[in-house]
Write a structure and sequence with these properties.
Layout lengths: L19 H20 L3 E3 L10 E5 L7 H14 L3 E5 L7 H9 L2 E3 L2 H9 L3 E3 L5 H4 L15 H9 L2 E8 L1 H4 L2 E6 L8 E5 L10 E4 L15 H26 L6
Parallel strand pairs: 1-9, 2-5, 2-6, 3-4, 3-5
Antiparallel strand pairs: 6-9, 7-8
Length: about 260
């Protein structure tokens, strides 16, 4: 597998000798991420809060329908932690071989409980968006309003004794404007898609804040305690929403400053 997060300091001199796969999934994505960092004037806080070893769940808010938040966040994590992040991704990526192949080569993993537990038991750094598609596909009129957190990340953390790092991403909401959330439950259960206004990303200023890690002091058998998992997910969501509200107020316009 060619993973564009790997070996950020590697220099490529003979581009003509590289395979098409290496150019597509390694060289170009790295160049693109560096360009996006400058385009979005990216600011980062709290890198010291990311554990350097052991199972870790990075739990960010999800926004800006394009998925740029997942790509940029993962790139920043690899650059600054020297750990290769495993990104839990929407199941639509894996419906066909055509989309599953690039997803796998970019280091994505289908977002299921079993996949998450398997990665965490191997002491991986896992990026998991608790809001799921309801977060990044919500209309821009609801920007920075967290959607209900699914409890899977809580259950994974309890099952594997993983630490959770609540993470705030600002900027994606203004980068890609979503007019409406489209639901196709009549045709495919649970399918939600965006109705975008723009495809070319707008030059909003981005900021990523890593909060202090949360450790859940519960034994693995508590995974089946739905009330506990629900309460813990709500507590983390409320804490993140307060932080988002504060950051948005300090930030002002997403396009200036």
């Amino acid at each position: 597998m060619i993973n564009f997060f790997k070996k950020p300091n590697e220099k490529v001199f003979n581009l003509k000798e590289l395979s098409a796969d290496a150019l597509m999934y390694k060289v170009f994505p790295r160049f693109f991420m560096e360009l996006m960092k400058k385009y979005f004037r990216l600011e980062i806080e709290g890198l010291e809060n990311i554990p350097t070893k052991g199972p870790v769940i990075i739990a960010p808010n999800h926004s800006g329908y394009s998925g740029f938040d997942a790509l940029i966040l993962s790139y920043i994590l690899q650059q600054n932690t020297k750990r290769i992040p495993r990104v839990m991704t929407h199941h639509l990526w894996f419906l066909t071989e055509t989309t599953a192949l690039p997803a796998n080569k970019l280091g994505f993993t289908e977002a299921t409980f079993d996949n998450g537990v398997s990665l965490l038991k191997k002491n991986n750094l896992v990026v998991l968006f608790p809001e799921g598609e309801h977060g990044n596909f919500k209309p821009t009129s609801k920007r920075y309003q967290l959607q209900e957190f699914k409890r899977g990340f809580i259950r994974m953390a309890i099952q594997t004794n993983a630490q959770i790092v609540p993470t705030i991403i600002l900027g994606a909401e203004e980068t890609h404007i979503n007019l409406q959330q489209l639901k196709f439950t009549k045709f495919l259960r649970g399918l939600v898609l965006p109705l975008p206004l723009n495809v070319i990303p707008l030059p909003a200023k981005w900021k990523i804040v890593f909060e202090k890690p949360v450790h859940l002091p519960f034994k693995p058998e508590k995974v089946s305690d739905s009330e506990l998992c629900h309460d813990l997910a709500n507590e983390i969501q409320e804490s993140m929403q307060k932080k988002i509200n504060k950051e948005v107020k300090l930030r002002g316009s997403g396009y200036f400053g």
